[in-house]
Amino acid sequence: MREDIDKYMTRLDDTNWKDFITSIGSLKKQLSNKLPLGYVLRKARMVMADYSFPLDDELGSIIDSYRLMSDYMLRGFQDNSRAELYRKLNLRLYRRLSDVELHVRKQFDPVISSFVPREVINCDLDSLRNNLELFVSDLAMLTLEPEGNVVERRNALYERRYNIMSNAFNQILCSGQWSNEHAIDVANLILSPIIETTDALSLCAAVMMSSLLSPDPVKVLLLLRVYREASDDRLRQRALIGWVFALDNGDFSLFPDINEHVKLLMKDGNFREELVELQMQVVFCMSAEQDTQTIERDVMPNIIKNQNLEVTRFGIREKEDNPMDDILHADSSDKKIEELEQSMRKMAEMQKRGADIYFGGFSKMKRFGFFFTLSNWFTPFYMQHPGLRHLPQEIRDTKFMSNLLSTMPFCDSDKYSFALAMSSVFPQLPDNIKEMLGNNASMVVPGMDSVLNTSAFYRRQYLQDLYRFFRINDSSKAFNNPFDSDDSNRMFLNNPAFHGEMHDGAVKVVGFLLKRKRYAAAKTMLDNYFDENHLDDNLLAAQIALKSGDYHMAEKFFAKAFEIEERGDKSLKGYALASFHCAHYAKAAALYHLLAEVFPDKHQYKMNEAIALINDGKEGKAVNILYELYYNDQENIDVRRVLAWGLLCMKQAEKASRLYEAILASGNDVAVDHLNAGYCYWFMGQGKIAAKHFVYFVSIKKEEAKKAKTHLQENILSDKFKEDASLLDRYDISSIDRLIMSGVG
User: Fold this and answer.
1) What does pTM read for this prediction?
2) How far apart (Å, rounded) are the C-alpha atoms in residues 66 and 58?
3) Three-class SS state of 502
4) Alpha carbon 305 to chain centroid distance?
5) pLDDT per residue over 241-266, tens digit each?
6) In angstroms, rounded to a whole number, what is the distance separating the alpha carbons of residues 653 and 643?
7) CA dihedral 733, 734, 740, 743 (to 10 degrees)
8) What is the pLDDT of residues 376-388, one digit of tens each?
9) Any idea what the Cα angle at residue 237 is, between residues 236 and 241, rounded to 5°?
10) What is the dihedral sign for C-alpha 247, 251, 255, 257?
């Protein structure tokens, strides 16, 4: 697009440019929705005229080509290539509108305008390639330089390379729609074995971020090619994340080439597994704040409590302390060490599973000036980075810092944060700590040595870098956020491009989301892949419905699963539970009876059958089952509890009261036991004793609510009496008596 259109007089200014962008977005949506091209072109001309925005040569060419095609058709001429021409004109208009949109944003959006390079020297591809190749050769030639010149010369080379790459990053970032030829040249540069891998990784990130700023199908295809052809696994994984996120940023239904490439990839089982793992890793990133809270709540208190311990290169040991403690508290040292080691193991296990355990700490260390440069967020860590030039040499020479590159499970931006923080605190450290850092040859987190330098680890590192940028950097608002936590359903596997072959993988992710309690996201994904004849699909749909409180839908899905499984026990348990919650007590009793036959050793199923029978008004049959369970296991509190309730429902309050008194005396009582004991004495005409039990019930509920920090109903007893109205009706408890008794609590 002509970049000199600024000279034209337009009606665009700081007050209305967003409206213009909205109008352009609406035109693009109309194209994606397959509205007639002629209609969209007329609307486009109207939008441009409303804002006095000039029609450039490309827009004019599209309009002229469409007019000729339309005229040719109206005059009755046949053209076998008309359909293809129509499709290409759609694509051209979509891409041109995208360029217009980006151009206006670069002019008026203060965030994006700050990315636009002020210098454009040495940014053409040939110059960039030559400079990056020259850096590699010049660096190699340093070995021939006199020793006194090496450091200064090396610093100068890295400084020049850094300036070139920063400029190139921003040039790519702010670029519009690319031609296929340009994309091929960029891909060849990224895949070149002659340039530094660090530079290839940065360029790959720039292409992705450009696509998150303004969707471009050609850039998606470029990243797909890099993913397929890269020999370096770090680059390959970065390209995978890049094209997946870029694909999820736009509506590419007009570009079938992308879907064809994706469908081809999905024939590979290893690729499908990588997609599944990537989706799970994205979820772990989105849970970083939650995991941080877990660490602060469950892990850090033990570490703080045992702050008289220190970590050395020889392990965890206790600092010198009062010798009398060894006599008075002989086992305290072992307990403290055990508690600390348990806390450390828990953090290691969380990290091994994929949790971002360092987000909480390092998120507060991104205010260094280093991070004011956008490209630094996506640059792999290297000690020679000019942003670290003020790092004292004694830090650079320590084994500890060198291990950051190879053994510490930090993402790259956290490594930079750590190095920058060390530069300010290192001079104040005690000599013994400096010595420890200098001698420490291994900093591998326990259990992480098998994870480092794997494809999964490279993905995790890059995802964490991206997550930090999108969560912390204010500039990130200019981009489409692939971790948008406001949209709980935001999962890239929901993209139609992945449907079909990814069914089994998506089902696996749904199960993972359920375990992470992301029920809305799980439902959306399952809806996109649901197969009504697939057992796992129905079981998962039923579980989601249960978690959502939609018991009727849960019962429906469990019933279907039960049918598919040919009366298998996998679905039977859920079917019985859902039927009970739907108040289909007769069905629930029959299903639990079947479960009891399949699993005769599990008495819980017989007890559940009895509960269902009680609710179905068949207390006598239920009590017979419960008496059998009671005689076989008289110490089972739960059996006593249900039997007592059954007897109470049968208007045998005296027998029930004896069971409730035994439960209360056991010390294993719960709040509802006091409520039901109160019912017994109330129905027996012993109102004062009943009132004491009701008061105690209310006090327990209040204490539970206080501990859980939850809201409690205004009048607990009144609500409970309403819930148990049918029971109170059996014993002819009047409404006035209920009101009076509810007042005791």
Assistant:
1) 0.83
2) 12
3) coil
4) 32
5) 999 999 988 888 889 899 999 999 99
6) 12
7) 70
8) 999 999 989 999 9
9) 120
10) positive
